Amino acid sequence: MYIYNVTTNIEETAHDTWLQWMKETHIPQVLSTGKFLSAKFTKVLVEEDMGGYTYSVQYTVPDKATLDRYYEEDAPALIESIQKKFAGQLVSFKTELEVVDEFFVQRATATHYLFTYGTLQEREVQLGVFARPLNGFEDELPLYTISDIKVADLYPTLQHTGSKEDSIKGQVYTLSHQELHKADRYEGEAYERIEIQLASGKKAWTYIAK
């Protein structure tokens, strides 16, 4: 996995407008390209000789090829929009970081089971959504199949059949309350979270198209 870091020094006179624009417009536009898994927006705690304020945005991306496609397909128009809106008021530079390894603290507050059957089983997605890889176990969801109709023609969803012959194999992960809400944000408005009972007898959450 890679991190695409953009560091920006913004003049004090444009700071408030730029900060709001970054949070409400620019960062969502970058994520909407579909190239990145997540973004973290931080303020650099240093007094700059040049004045102004310095911020960093770290976008996680699964591989270098995807980042190169962003440079080619999306970056020119996004950079142009920044220059038009804040010409002469900011200085930015980019840094590419390759993730060598990651280490995590065990979370003792994980209390929710989440049954997954799609992209949340991918390590890169888990790191982007939860900032840690998930350790799961296999279980089955009875009375359901994978629907032939996909969300946005790309993503799978469940179909309740009620038939004892139908079941879906998947991975179950244990999440904290906060992590469960991160999963809600990742799945977005197209899905809703429902409570189901697995073949093992455990109750868990899963996502189904609205």
Secondary structure class reads: alpha+beta
- Total DSSP helices: 5
Low-confidence stretches: none
Widest sheet: strand order?
2-3-1-4
Relevant terms:
single chain, 210 residues, alpha+beta, 4-stranded antiparallel β-sheet, 3-stranded antiparallel β-sheet, 5 helices, 35% strand, elongated
Report a brief summary of the structure:
This protein is an alpha+beta fold.
Write up what this structure looks like.
Helix 1 (15-31) packs antiparallel against helix 3 (75-86). The radius of gyration is 21 Å and the shape is elongated. Helices cover 28% and strands 35% of the residues. The strands form 4 sheets. Strands 2-3-1-4 form a 4-stranded antiparallel beta sheet, sandwiched between helices. It is of the alpha+beta class. Strand 10 (191-197) and strand 11 (203-209) form a beta hairpin.
Walk me through the topology.
Blueprint: E1 2-10, H1 15-31, E2 38-43, E3 53-61, H2 64-73, H3 75-86, E4 90-98, E5 112-116, H4 123-130, E6 136-142, E7 144-146, E8 158-160, E9 167-175, H5 177-187, E10 191-197, E11 203-209
Antiparallel strand pairs: 1-3, 1-4, 2-3, 5-9, 6-9, 7-8, 10-11
Helix pairs in contact: 1-3
